[in-house]
Amino acid sequence: MQTQKALFMGRITAGATHEIKNVLAIIKESAGLIEDLISLGEKNGRIPVEKLTKTLTKITDQVNRGVELSTRLNEFAHTPDQDAAPVDLNIAVERVVSLSQRFARLKRVRLEAHRKDGEQSVFTDPLAFLMLMFSGIELLMNHVGENGLISVEPSPAQGDIAAISSLPAGTTIAMDDAKTLMETEGFQRVEELARNLNMPVRLEGPPLRLVIAEPIGSPV
Amino acid sequence: MDDWTVLLVDDEKEFASTLAERLNLRGLRCETAYSGEEAIEAMAKNPAQVVVLDLMMPGMSGLAVLEVLRQRHPDARIILLTGMGSVSDGVKGMKMGAFDYLMKPVEIDSLMQTIREAMQKQK
């Protein structure tokens, strides 16, 4: 389990830092463009104020994006601080969706987090729970196809703590989707992670939906 | 350099458009494409002499795009942009016929220099 956790942290960190590097690259080029424009303006006596303002706005937007990314990454880095703790499901869903966005974009899949009113929480291993949700998202992302939609929702029903739903872009949904997917290595991985947390998982559909139920018995 | 066209391919639109603008200010004619598929389409319509290609993109990977471009536009010089984690892909790309590879974030002067060298080899 420790190795799996380390690999998971590595994957998420690599994805997030790649995004941060992209943000910095945009800031770098934008700052470079401002320098270019000023230097050109000094030569021809015409400073393109509108263009400069637009580029500065671009920098501000990217700084905000970078702050958001690094905040998420920092929160994620603190996830393993406790082996077991109450996990706010709204926050956990938001966090895993935010950290998975890059993976979704690479697969051209849309990924959304939903919120539920009121405080919903589960007592569990916070990092292992994020890992379980990420594996579920990845499983459905690999299956939904380009331009499909994955949505993650906390406490979808009594006794369930999270649901990951998929909606393919096309209109054809194979009837044996859930059965086929249950035989894949990806689902077996999800099942194994869920077993470690005593959380039953089930695959419903079509359209495919992975539901994680409340842990059975004593807290992990 | 007036007749030289460069196609810059990167899925980070803000990055590609800003870098393209900087290259244009330096006298190049630089177009942008935001995916591998878009790049192949753009090359079919209006072939560029030099393609600056990001390796990690959604959909077709940079290496897959490189393979198609090498077949369809053997004269085009392709410069790869790689991230920290994909240096091995840069090396693989060189073996597949890329002109060079540069690490992101790239210095504008070294990119210009590499583009110039590619143009000279192209002539």
From TrEMBL, chain B:
Signal peptide: none annotated. It holds the Pfam family Response_reg. Keywords: Phosphoprotein, Transcription, Transcription regulation, Two-component regulatory system. The modification 4-aspartylphosphate is found at D54. Transmembrane segments: none annotated. Gene3D superfamilies: 3.40.50.2300. It comes from the Bacteria. The keyword Cell wall biogenesis/degradation does not apply. PANTHER family: PROTEIN PILG, STRESS RESPONSE REGULATOR PROTEIN 1. This is Response regulator. It comes from Desulfomonile tiedjei.
